[in-house]
Design goal:
Blueprint: E1 4-11, H1 16-27, E2 32-38, E3 43-48, H2 52-66, E4 71-74, H3 90-109, H4 114-120
Antiparallel strand pairs: 1-3, 1-4, 2-3
Length: 121
């Protein structure tokens, strides 16, 4: 049968020892040729020779028996996740930079008046 490589997201995985136990348990499943967990990303990678649907159910059952609080879901193709890359506040940052530039320019041209400089700074 053809070798398949599947990736799964392990939600709720919060300790390295749990990851090791899951990795050991999944690697002992019949048909699994290779198994690794990236603890930092919470990703389980499995190379196997069985049908994907059958293997997915067996992996999920094994993970649940080892660590009941960890949920298993197939990793989606592409770049889908719940966080943003900082572009949400881009407008606010640009407005703050422009405001700072305007105030800085105004401060440069203010005559040497102590009260005005005190108010500005």
């Amino acid at each position: 049968m053809k070798k398949m490589k599947d990736e799964y997201v392990l939600s709720g995985l919060d300790c390295g020892n749990c990851a090791r136990k899951i990795e050991t348990g999944v690697s002992k499943l019949e048909g699994v040729e290779a198994c690794s967990i990236n603890f930092a990303t919470g990703t389980l990678t499995v190379t196997h020779a069985d049908a994907q649907e059958t293997m997915s159910k067996r992996i999920e059952k094994t993970v649940q028996s080892i660590e009941p609080h960890v949920s298993v879901s197939p990793k989606e193709e592409g770049h889908h996740h719940d966080h943003d890359h900082g572009t949400k506040n881009l407008k606010t940052i640009v407005l703050k930079l422009i405001g700072g530039a305007v105030i800085g320019t105004a401060a440069y041209f203010i005559p040497d008046n102590g009260l005005l400089k005190f108010i500005m700074f």
